[in-house]
Description:
Layout: H1 5-20, H2 27-34, H3 38-41, H4 48-54, H5 56-70, H6 77-94, H7 96-106, H8 113-136, H9 149-169, H10 172-194
Helix pairs in contact: 1-2, 1-7, 5-8, 6-7, 6-9, 6-10, 8-9, 9-10
Amino acid sequence: MSKTTTEKLQDAALARFAVQGFDATTMNEIAADVGIKKPSVYAHFRNKDELFLSLIPKIVEDELNHARQVLQGGEGIKQQLRAYLEGMQERFEQSHQVRFWIRILFAPPVHLYDVVMEPMHVFMADLERITHQAVAQSALAKPETGLSVETLAKTYMALIDSLQSELLFGGVHRYRRRLESVWLVFDKAVFGSAQL
């Protein structure tokens, strides 16, 4: 099934926003990428803001689905938690969608800040619930770990925030160094005492 012009415009905008950012991207560039003239874009989106905002719901859905696939709980919880963090880099490098996603989480267009951050806060709460559920359905939920499921989920969310910001602002090398450091502490603190 071929994509509609609206979907092609969204794909082109996503790629441009992910690489160049919102301010540096023009509607002329997006139109040219799709092979139409700029006035034709306005038959689908009133302006660049509307086009930008139209990308967020699908990205939120896709990111939560990815988290649900990786973070399922059970015996493999340690590997799942590590895989989700490690997957950030690969997904960031290979996907305009993930690059766009992380960029808007930490540096949304200033004039759209409130509109963008509202669904981002909902997303982060949903991601924490997914993490909480995965941890609750694993051996980490045993009392002998000394850490509540809520504490573990919130700590893991702090790791995600830290690593995403390092990936965006510090680059892959700094992200890898931070990942190894934070995981070493998390692993020893959580799995060292849990005897899993």
